[in-house]
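We now fix the convention by which a protein and its fold are recorded. Here is one such record, which you should read through line by line:

>
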Amino acid sequence: MTIKILFVIISGFGGGLAVGAGFVAFLTVLGLIPRLTQLTKTKKLIHWYEWAVIFGAIAGTAGGLNFPVFYFPSFFAIPIGLASGMFVGMLAAALTEVLNVLPILAKRVYVEDRIIALLMAIVFGKVFGSLFQWVYFVDYR
């Protein structure tokens, strides 16, 4: 029995190291946090962004292991959801900016002259998809 537990501990630790190294490489190589601060014109707050990523990773890990349930009133949950959505949107915008995804995508699907329409389609798709998820899959008790 102890050999099985030891194997689970070692494999879990190894998997965590691999995922953590990949996450750090992703953030470092692409320079997402500096680019995000550049886009939002908040370069002096870069340390706050870095700590937010660290605490977010820790909270996400703890949440993934413990499955916590929070019972917030709606007036509390709405600003938290809006802030989370804005952060994810800005992170996605920084990622696409770094990788120059939109010009490549526009060239591939032959809509180079309609890149604004492509961007709006992506934005509205994200908004409507998020609203659909919240309306149909979130329990409002």
